[in-house]
UniProtKB/TrEMBL annotation:
Its cofactor is pyridoxal 5'-phosphate. Transmembrane segments: none annotated. One of its GO terms (molecular function) is 4-aminobutyrate:2-oxoglutarate transaminase activity. The keyword Transferase applies. Pfam families: Aminotran_3. Its EC number is 2.6.1.19, 2.6.1.22. NCBIfam families: PRK08117.1. It catalyses: 4-aminobutanoate + 2-oxoglutarate = succinate semialdehyde + L-glutamate; (S)-3-amino-2-methylpropanoate + 2-oxoglutarate = 2-methyl-3-oxopropanoate + L-glutamate. Keywords: Aminotransferase, Pyridoxal phosphate, Transferase. Pathway: Amino-acid degradation; 4-aminobutanoate degradation. This is (S)-3-amino-2-methylpropionate transaminase. Belongs to the class-III pyridoxal-phosphate-dependent aminotransferase family.
Amino acid sequence: MIIRIIVLLFARGIVIPLMAAPQSLDARGRNAEAAEEKGVIRLNTPESFLKRMHRHLAPTMAKDFPNLPVIGEEGCYYLGLDGRKYLDFTSGIAVTNVGHRHPKVVEAIKRAADRLLHGPMGVIVYESALKLAEELARILPEGLDSFFFGNSGTEAVEGAIKLAKHVTGKPCVVSFTGCFHGRTLGALSLSTSKSKYRKHLHAVSGVYQIPYADPRGCPPDREPARWCVEELDKNLEHLFQHQVSPEEIACVILEPILGEGGYIVPPRQWLVRLREICDRHGILLVFDEVQTGFGRTGQWFAAQTFGVTPDIMAIAKGIASGLPLGVTAASRELMQKWTPGAHATTFGGNPIACEAALATIRVIEEENLLANCRQMGAYAREKLDKLAEKHARIGDVRSVGLMIGIEIIDPETGEPDGEALLKILHRCAEYGVLFYLCGNRGEVIRMIPPLTVNRDQIDEGLKVLDRVLAELEAGHPVP
Ligand SMILES: Cc1ncc(COP(=O)(O)O)c(C=O)c1O
């Protein structure tokens, strides 16, 4: 086994750093061998990788889950350094919606790189950016037809807030408890999914938070949608009376489905009411669709899934299949009020990223991935509901399309159990399936496979989850 690993690593040109730590590789090899006999796949991170990671990468990045050493990616899989294929139900955190390294996207990137590498917009103008803007105008909800191109989700959010403040001339913003909008100081000031993200943050002024819709809190004798709407009315009324008047509020920003905060799906009526209240008070409504966008909910955007159109939208992640691209979208009427120079970027709308986005849109349409997302989402949901009946560890399953949250609880107390969840995710990874996590206490399994996923792959992934939950319950490996 050890020889096999070394030969494999030699073939991939990484034997020298590994030779520097023969002892630990040996130990790891033995563990892997023993584990393999039991049918378990051990994550085999070479000691040299760990050392290099911890020497030169900031711990804030380097200590995440699962730090799988990979040498490649393809379709729904990562190719591990250990030579195994790992079924990826994270989509690189909701990015590779058309699958990892889709051949048509790769081809578009190669062609683009042969022509134009850097597009400092303003200095030059080029076809891919113009074409992408036209394509986005076609697939976004009607009325959102003008775009600012940046590099990331955070930047798309920052752009949205700046635009809202600029065009309304108002200073304040309302966001929702539990939402995540990014990690720069402005976007972070709006984000409350976890307090650890905000450590030592002196939030920008003029940000107010109210609770997100949470149907789980609905009293048993009430109808959840109506109750959520009444709570929203109450919370906003209270905010307007005690803290900030609506005339001072530029925009209300939210994720149309709570992402990082635990995959909570608000009732449609709640979003409809929010739209009405914003209209009544001349407040702009901003949807952060960084995670919900680009097909994840079974439509291009959650705005279309819910039938509620915001004034401004932030888009990133899945748009360019892995290349950095963020978009702030609004109506032409609104965007025309953003005066020249008020906002700009050096790299935003990079020509290669724009071509990757155009290819991504083509693939989603040619391969009917929105329909596949809805079908596979329903298929996975049915299976997960059955798993929830079987395993007391599953407290709740929530989903729209292929945006699926599986809440893990302590069966004794019914309380969210982030510790057990981490064990489950590690074990699943050892068996070759990657899930991610979310929720304020890290208690929700985030299942977001590529939209190309098929029934066999869902069966494969959920079989592993089933087995791992059974092991946890039994307190020992289950064959
Ligand atoms: C809803 C939402 N908004 C914004 C962001 C920030 O995006 P990025 O990491 O590309 O800056 C994320 C990232 O996870 C997100 O999920």
